[in-house]
Amino acid sequence: MTKIENLREKLHNVMDHGDGCEILATSQELDDLIVLYMKLQLSTRTDFSL
Predict the structure, then answer these.
(1) Of 5, 6, 26, 48, which shows the fewest CB atoms inside 10 Å?
(2) Range 21-43 average pLDDT
(3) Do 14 and 23 contact (CB within 8 A), yes or no?
(4) What pTM did the predictor assign?
């Protein structure tokens, strides 16, 4: 989760001082990390309902 927070902070900084390509690249990197985190959460979830 720390990596996600770091990328969020980086994105805010890039949005303040970066160009469009840098904003897009950082945003996509953050999106990818969030998806990986969500997949991990789903794969470790135990569902006992039938």
Answers:
(1) 48
(2) 95
(3) yes
(4) 0.78
